[in-house]
Design goal:
The complex is a heterodimer. Chain A is mainly α. In chain A, 84% of the residues lie in helices and 0% in strands. Chain A has twelve helices and no strands. The longest helix of chain B is centred in the C-terminal third of the chain and has 18 residues, at 183-200. Classes of the chains: A mainly alpha, B alpha/beta.
Amino acid sequence: MTETALRSAPKLETAARARRRPKAQRVRSRPARIVLDVLQRTWLIVVVFAVWWIATAESTNVFIPSLESILVSLFRDLSNGVIASGAAYSLGNLAAGLLIAVAVGIIGGLILGETKRLREIVDPVIHFFRSIPQAALVPLIIGAFGIGQGPKIYTIAFACMWPVLLNTIDGVLGVEPTIRKFSKVYRIPRGLHFRKVVLPAALPQIVAGVRVALPIGITVMVVSELFAANKGLGFYILNSSATFMVPETWAGALLVGVIGYILSLLFIVLERRILSWYFKSGAK
Amino acid sequence: MAIQAAPEQVQVATKPLLHVQGLTMSYGAGDSENKILNDLNLEVNDGEFVSIVGPSGVGKTTLLRCLSGLVQPRSGTVSVGGEIINGPHRDLAVVFQDYSRSLLPWMTTLENVAFPLQGRGVGKKERNETAEKNLAAVGLAGQGHKYPWEMSGGMQQRVAIARALAYNAKVLLMDEPFASVDAQTRFDLEDLVIDLQSSLGVTIILVTHDIDEALYLADKVIVLAEKPATVVDVIETGFGDHRDQVDTKADPRFVEARARILHRLRDH
């Protein structure tokens, strides 16, 4: 009897808390909350830009142009299509590279995660390659595979693959043992076991790996266009800096940062969608 | 269930559905060998409800792992319907102790119940119908769209039972299935399992450390004790199909059997 009472006590407490919580939230109206939320997320950016604007307004240093001139160049080149075509090329490479990295990383990770023997053999190689600064490999890969679009995509794919691969392996190793026993006892065929048991179980980790791969991909995307390129955001940055168009160089770098930020926001939306069970179940 | 006055003769007439012969299991080898089960023999007839009871750590879980084909015994055999098993078997379904970990949180309740049927190649329409039917059988009609984590512990364990029933195995193995729910839910689940067993005629082997539960549920209680574990007693309960949480547990036969099991466990 006392055992029952003890066991149900924490349940009662959480139930009471759950009932109280919505009341506390209802104090502020929804629109007010959204405004506050947006303010909280944006005030720092506004302050940084304001300080930047004021501090560089009178700048005479060639390498530190005023923010005004940077933004003027940025909007000029955005509107006349110089950047747009470059950005489209770069982002196309990034998308293709990421896609390859995710496909190879997940498939490789599932196989390596499930086969201990293979994992032990390949492990040192994985850690060797992932420790190499990926940007340093760009000239080698372009030198070896040529100057076209393909090698740029491969370098992005190569760099982005490691976090996806390693996280997938971790995710597979972390699959709940009871779930594995269930799959075995109920004789779930191998293919179905991979697709419907191991993959979803490892998905939160895999998605975390892709999130890490995203900024790596953006960096390598830019670096890959610093070698043997005639278009792309990296080329825009390199070319403007080589011709002393410093505001354009800054504008290019700024744009890459903004793109990175937007992509990470889009990624969060995607993550919430494909892992809705994970967030809702409170497993996180 | 069947009249067990002369067990030897009954065995000749009807072969047991599940037969364990000389089962020995140990982990490790050489000097560090840890023997868990020693020359264990069991017989479970078709439609019978058998409880296996014993103190914690006696090797009940190891026995269940052998029965479900998850591990191979060192020696001895487990056979179902006359066929010696050497791995997970079509005629054996398991209800795990930890319902919250054995259900897949990324699938709805209906998908969870239907999933093992998909593995067997049953078409979508048919497996969903079967899943719906079995969810209804455990008192969860129309709840298939919910996710397991939207349900209470007792309901989750009902889903796990529905999943095992939908698999339509001849033998249901239950590993301390009610150990992690509160007392009232536990009584409800016990009665549910008794009802299901008598209405569906499925054979159930339930492992528990709770002597009352073992006696209340089963037609036959097998008592495990000693290290390594072996069968120290077999008790036919003889309560029939109708049982009541209060009356059955106050039945003199119940009280007597409980005393007998406690003595057996104390003596070993």
